[in-house]
Amino acid sequence: MQSVIHLVSGDETEQRTALNIARNLLDDESGSIDDIAIVAQAGGIHAVTTDGEHAEDVQSLLDDGVPFKGCSNTLAAFDLEESDLLDGVETVPEGAVEVTRLQDEGYAYLRP
Amino acid sequence: MQSVIHLVSGDETEQRTALNIARNLLDDESGSIDDIAIVAQAGGIHAVTTDGEHAEDVQSLLDDGVPFKGCSNTLAAFDLEESDLLDGVETVPEGAVEVTRLQDEGYAYLRP
Amino acid sequence: MQSVIHLVSGDETEQRTALNIARNLLDDESGSIDDIAIVAQAGGIHAVTTDGEHAEDVQSLLDDGVPFKGCSNTLAAFDLEESDLLDGVETVPEGAVEVTRLQDEGYAYLRP
What we know:
- Three copies of one chain form a homotrimer.
- By secondary structure, chain A is an alpha/beta fold.
- Chain A has helices at residues 12-27, 55-63, 72-77, 95-104; strands spanning 2-7, 35-40, 68-71, 90-92, 108-110.
- Chain A has a single domain, classed as Hypothetical Protein Ychn, Chain: A (3-Layer(aba) Sandwich).
- In chain A, 53% of the residues are buried.
- Chain A binds chain B through residues 6, 8-10, 41-43, 73, 77, 93-97, 99-101, 103-104, 109, 111, and chain B through 1-3, 13-14, 17, 20-21, 24-25, 28-30, 32-33, 108-112.
């Protein structure tokens, strides 16, 4: 099974929950989760910037192979550059299109 | 592909994000999004009332053909009338049933 | 059709909305909803504890046959015991895996 986490909120507790859930999916002993993806947009984009509160946990998930995709529309709206994102965070033109595409491919949706 | 946005929160930042995402899906240059629907219920209903903070943006999306569906159970619970909704907002008996139905039809779910 | 509600937020308004939606799905006169499940994790776990604000409504939904599944990872993280959960609340090793599994089985996802 596959899961996409929508990191869309600027609320730090919700961001923390999203990252905890990603970690738990990764560590799941049932082995039923084959792929995880995290799409960051709107207020959630801050979680994947170099000066985000949760940079260390994002980096650790990246190191473990979890793909993070930042929304380019959000970067433009928030006056951020790709260089503000943590190394390894990819960009997609629009986060919600990516989340739609992943669900269309069979990913389950999680919005912590 | 098709996307349904669940406008379920009374938080104005989340409502703003939901409407921004609808606009971005509509303007998406990849052309991969065929249909969008927005279902408003619980605190999210306020966004589609005539005196909502975001009335102008909702109207603009309505004008561009995005269907908005307000939850009648919410209207009753909040002592609102259909006449309190912006012109063009339809009603459905229960928002969550409509969101379920749309996912069952193949819509991806987005909860900004 | 089937719906899973992700009770993942510690916000009491969001928890209230989640339980209202469960009740409305159950009472839906269209008869189109065959099954509902509620998965509680992260801040949402508090809603299904014996001293939660909404214990009475959770109990009423349990009495009406709605399954509630609490996340064991969350219990451990919050230093809670299974005995802190309302009678009838089951546990699953990881809430997000359960939500993924249910979507994989065809459940629509709702995150109030």
